[in-house]
Structure formats: C-alpha cells, structure tokens
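User: Sequence in, structure out. Go.
Assistant: Echoing your sequence, followed by the structure tokens.
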Amino acid sequence: MTLTEKITSELLDAADDSDKIEAVFARHAHSKEPLYSALAKATATLQERLKALAEQERESQVRHQEQQQKVEGVRKRLPNEPRPPSKRSSAWSMSGRPRARNWPHWTAS
C-alpha cells in the first residue's frame, strides 16, 4: 500500500469527524504531495458516495409519494362514518353460543 493510499484510507475513515481529519493532516504534513493526492482521491470518493445517496433519497421520495397516493385511494373508498359495533359481539360468546347472562330463561331463579 502506497503512502497516498494509506492517507486516502485514513481520510475516508475520518470523514465524519473533523478532529480525526486534523490528526491525519498533522501526521502527514511532511509529505505534501501524497497528502494532496490522497485528499483529491478522498474528495472524489466522497462525491461519488454523496451522489449515490442523493439518488437513493430521490428514489425513496418517489416510492413514498406512490405509497401516499395508494393510501389516499384506499381512504377515498372507505366510508366516511365509523361503523357501529356488531351486536353479535356482545350477545354471543366466541364459540358462537349465546351468553347465559343475556338470556333470562337460562338464569337460575
């Protein structure tokens, strides 16, 4: 691995931390040409990554808008008023049989 490649790698690893970038510059201040070449390569690499991320974001926004349109289409097809609760759910048990408390002739007198 050449010095330029090493510096490029260090710069890319430190891309989100300005203190780490300053440390890379300080460590390699004595080798100007490899440092500047590495800086140019790292910048180009980061630009490519940013372009790819921007494209992913645009695609995500398009998918999001498509999903929003689908949701709006479904909402338009739904009735506007809420449906009343089912009477069967309160008078009948889960087994499908009437609950004893709802039928007076089944209760003990």
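User: And one key feature?
Assistant: Residues 3-79 form one domain.
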